[in-house]
Amino acid sequence: MTPRVSAVVLSYQDEPWLERCIHALLASEGVEIDVVLVDNGCTDGAVERLSGTPGLTVVGEGENLGFSPGCNFGATFTKGDYLVMANGDLVVEPDALARLVEVASDPTVGIAGGSIRLNDDVETLNSAGNDIHFLGFSWVGGFGEPAATHAIDQDVAGAMAALVMLRRDVWESLDGYEPHYFAFHEDADMSWRCWQRGLRVHYVPDAIGRHRYEFGRVGNKMYLVERNRLIFMLTCWDSRTLVLLAPLIVATEVAMALIGARSGWLSEKIHGWGWLFSHRKWLRERRRAVQSERTVGDKELAALMSDRLDAKNFPIPESLSFLDAAAAGYWHFVRRFLR
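Below the sequence we write its predicted structure tokens.
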């Protein structure tokens, strides 16, 4: 029986690859495919040109709902047994979805993530799964490395939201992405919640998507990245883990504020702190819900966490390398006290 797959794609502002993205998804082999396109504020006419395409449903009113709320909204219009979240600037290979189905159909797997390649060199990686640091940072793993060096199926800490597949029952049990993230870190949150429930996040090297990657497309990215990193830690880490990491968390906040002051985004950092304070009741409720659903503790999951900040697409200043090493040493010491 041919598996039924529904893909959700968001369109936002200028989308030069959107039409290629949609047509590539609809041309997928080995699956029965339909695509839901969410108009999140596309400005170049691509949504209008795609309207009426067989197998495509266009939803949304042209308002930017955000990435995580937009994906959740689009998912409500899907009917497939498997859900794919794909970026509008990503083009899948014909057999990519079928390969993801093979992995996602395993009941021990929560998320199957594709091999994201850079658009100007399909043999070079954008992401072979995402790394998640014990201080909540998350970044694309394998960035800029030859895809051939990551050619083996393997479990990873996180999957990059540009191309992920979940069984419908998993998506629904997780209630999709947490909408408060708006954009960024929602994939780390969903991946970690899978791990906490005993579901694996698995990288599929031959499920290939070519990505027109832009690091700074969203204007307030540092506000969202830093705020969401803290949401992630405060809701997903066990209380004992947070207590043990408290000195490092405070020191990291000071360091990030100093970096923000030097780089021009200190106001965004302060804005993030303000948001967390004003939403403290929601944070407590979210934390209670996430922790009540977990069956696997941080002690068991600690091996998945990165201990060094080695993002190739956003390297830390050389002057902070000593502090990075010291933090890693502290982490290795306190890991024995996790539960």
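The mean pLDDT is 96.
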